Amino acid sequence: MSCVLELKNISFVYGKGTPFEKRAVDNVSLGIERGELIGVIGHTGSGKSTLMQMLNGLMRPTEGQVFLDGKDIWEKPKKIREVRFKVGMVFQYPEYQLFEETVYKDIAFGAQNMGLAGDELDKAVRDAATFTDLKPALLDKSPFDLSGGEKRRAAIAGVIAMDPEVLVLDEPTAGLDPMGREVLLSQIVNYHKARQNTILLVSHTMEDIARVADRIIVMNKGKLAMFEPTKEVFRRGDELENYGLKVPQITRIMHDLRQKGIDVPEGVLTVDEAFSALLPLLKKEGKLW
Amino acid sequence: MSFISIRDVRFSYDEVAEGKPVTYAVDGVSLDIEEGEFVAVIGHNGCGKSTLAKHLNAMLLPDSGKVIVDGDDTSIEEKTFDIREKVGLVLQNPDNQLVASIVEEDVAFGPENLGVEPEEIRRRVDKALKAVDMYEYREHAPHKLSGGQKQRVAIAGILAIQPQCIVLDEPTAMLDPSGREEVISTLLKLNRDNKITVVLITHYMDEAVLADRVVVMDSGRIVTQGTPDEVFSQVELLKRHRLDVPQSAELAFRLKGCGVKIDKIPLTQSDCVAALEEAMK
Fold first, then answer.
1. Is the Cα dihedral B243, B95, A208, A231 positive or negative?
2. pLDDT mean across residues, chain A
3. Hey, is the C-beta of A289 within 8 angstroms of any chain B C-beta?
4. Which end of chain B is more exposed for a tag (fewer CB within 10 A), N or C?
5. d(CA B238, CA B209)
6. Per-domain residue ranges for chain A?
């Protein structure tokens, strides 16, 4: 399979040559395959945000190279704008970036800058609004009249309208209530399925990552600590705790049951999985009444 | 009398004019908070919980109804500062709450403004920083700290005012798992050892589980309240109000629904393991 993004020995040093020099990203190499949904986890200051900002050329690595579709993105620095169209970035609390008169115009802004116009632009905006479940009636409203959750989705729609090959979402569910988190997460998954594009999802909520990610990037102190399939990462709970991270509660519960000699599978990541594993077991033992 | 007594409070952000429909962010809430209690308030975005929190130290005043803090009505202007000394507020984003360039100066900001004597300020700052386990960082720059550390400094800044109660509005929403744990264990410690009343507003059910009492809000009203066991066993009610339960409770609830014998819905990892082991026997 071909890698859509490839990082070769990239590092980023803040304040180089000053007393405040800090190596935020330290010699990271990895390849992300087309169509993957990658979770990105790491404690505050682990370098994950810096790493994400190097993926679309918002920050230029002080060492190493970033390849998008096999091409070094910094080969022609003047063309970096095109990279930003291909790698869409949704920052934390993106609702603070809304600015246009109407929701429609706000969603259209990025796509318009890419050169989309007329029907093509209209379709891009409406599709993006559908993916993020913004009703057509909302499109003519001022973005500032929307609820918090709607604002967040409008901001995400603005990036989706650009139809990026790679979409980077930095903590898209932070501050949302449980249902809001759930809804947004399933919208992201549906979008991913429909477009078959590549998504990187940065989150502090391990339960969310466990549910949706194919593979997980674990950052620690600027270094790539793990890059493995989701089950594999959450199997290494002790290691994750050393990195200031955690394993979902359900995974820990099933792990403990296994330790106590109950025959449940290893690496259970969701309540659904746990339920399907336990119910037949309890049935077999005749423990239902 | 309770430390904080909320009586039939209604509050709207809309301009109240005759003939105009008004939506109330807080719509008839009565709630008593006892001294030394740890109360968690949960509810979906826009349910009115943050608006209610701002009523607890006179940041907002009710349109109708009353909030009495330690015997004082928050709507009496002369009492505002007394009330804010008694009830401190910590918000979601630590970066918006830190004002100084050195940790201990930031913590000193509150007592300085109250005109506390310099020696007393020194004593309070040291004590507050020790209470949140940030004393070693007293000479550091706040912007270089981790999210959990910043939030603990913000809490220390409130402690230096020596309040009887701290109200926190989603203090962990922006933190990583270990930062969340740091803040929550700090709150539990302050509540247990320093007898500080804590009102914690959160979207994280695993945090609410640790409180003495959980209050559930929706559409500006209190839907239900009780001990964590009482509240989180009502899985369907919580889901109806756009909330969730800890994964342990969800699993147990679904198994119970299929006829597995589980007496009490478990809220923690260890309780869940024990309950399932019991069911296997």
1. negative
2. 92
3. yes
4. C
5. 14
6. 248-289
Q: CA angle at residue B61 from B114 to B82, to 5 degrees?
A: 25
pTM of the model: 0.87
C-alpha separations of A154 from A89, A125, A138, A186, B259 in Å: 14, 10, 10, 16, 43
Provide the percentage of residues in chain B whose pLDDT is more than 90.
82
* d(CA B273, nearest CA chain A) in Å: 6
Q: Is A231 on the interface with B (CB under 8 A)?
A: no
Dihedral sign, CA of A40, A156, B174, B168?
negative
Q: Which residues of B30-62 are buried (b: 16+ CB within 10 A; e: fewer)?
A: ebebeebbbbbbbbbbbbbbbbbbbbbbbbbbb
Top residue of A221, A253, A262, A279 to mutate, by most chain B CBs within 10 Å, is A253
The sheet with strand B72-73 has its strands ordered as B26-33, B4-11, B64-69, B72-73
- Summarised one tens digit per residue, pLDDT across range A100-114 is 999 999 999 999 999
Q: Are B273 and A175 an interchain contact pair (Cβ–Cβ within 8 Å)? A: no
**Residues A172-220: pLDDT tens digits?**
998 888 888 888 999 999 999 999 999 999 999 999 999 999 999 999 9
pLDDT value at residue A289: 61
